[in-house]
Structure formats: structure tokens, C-alpha cells
Amino acid sequence: MQRLTISIDDQLAQQFDELMRRKGYANRSEAFRDMLRRELGEMARENDKSAECVGVLSYIYDHHERQLSSRLAEMQHHHHGLTVSTMHAHLSHDECVETLILNGATDEVEALAESVISQTGVRHGRLNLIPR
Ligand code: NI
What percent of the chain has pLDDT over 70? Predict the structure, then answer.
């Protein structure tokens, strides 16, 4: 373990403490480590699109939209190597919510997520990429 001493201006320090409180960090060190890990993970992901990652994809869709349910299932079957798990819930008479856990090369996970999100009837699609 190394000890780093950093200098930042008062306003930034105040904002950092506020961010720390909002996110529930017990101390500055843990908040800083998490921010650094996130940045490093992003950098690795951008530099190496073949790097393995876990993707959590969530979206809402209208199950009355013609053929959409079966098209979404078909896409998941087609990429069964990437799709670890799918959770489906019936939100209302019209709407379903699905969360897919994907695992594989970053570029493949992103491509599958984008093709799901861009389907007509799919709304609020979000992909969370977690570096491994
Ligand atoms: Ni449903």
C-alpha cells in the first residue's frame, strides 16, 4: 500500500467531500480509489475493445409492438455465448422491463446492446459496462 499526498484547491476539496457524502463513502481514500478504478477501467476499455467485460443492459419495451418480443428473444439466442442471464418483468398491461447480463468482448457486448436498444418499441435502453 502506498500513501499519496495530493493538493487540491478549497472549492474542489469541498465538492469532493460533498460527492463523498452523497455517495456514502466512509472516507476520502475509498472515494478516491473508486474514482481512480473507474477511470482506469474506462481507459482500458477504450484502448482495448477486445477486453472482457460484463455488460448490464436494461430497457423497457412495448410487448404489443409487432414481433418485438420474439425478435428480442431471437437476438439473445443468436448471441447465446454473450447472454448470461435475462430477467423479465411485466410492468403494466403494455410494458415489459428486461435486464440482460452479458459477458464477453467489449465490442461484441456493445454491438449487441446497441442493436437491442435501437429496435422500434425499445425505450430507455442503458448499458452499464463493468471492466473485468
Ligand atoms: Ni412482459
Answer: 100
Same domain assignment for residues 74 and 27: no
d(CA 49, CA 67): 32
CA of 109 to the centre of ligand 1 (A): 23
Asked if 70 and 105 sit in the same domain, the reply is yes
Residue 109 CB partners (closer than 8 Å, separation 6+): 53, 55, 82, 102, 103, 127, 129
What integer pLDDT is reported at residue 132 of this predicted model? 83
Flag whether 2 is in a domain: no
Residues 124 and 84 in one domain: yes
Spacing, Cα 61 to ligand 1 middle (Å): 9
Which of 44, 56, 42 minimizes the C-alpha distance to 109? 56
Domains contained in the chain, number:
2
Going from the Cα of 64 to the center of ligand 1, the distance in angstroms, rounded, reads 10
pLDDT averaged over the chain? Answer: 93
| Å from CA of 88 to ligand 1 middle | 6
Q: Which domain holds residue 24?
A: 10-47
| Tens digits of residue pLDDT in 34-56 | 999 988 888 887 888 888 999 99
Give the model's confidence band at 131: pLDDT under 50 very low, under 70 low, under 90 confident, else very high: confident
Would 64 be classed as within a structural domain?
yes
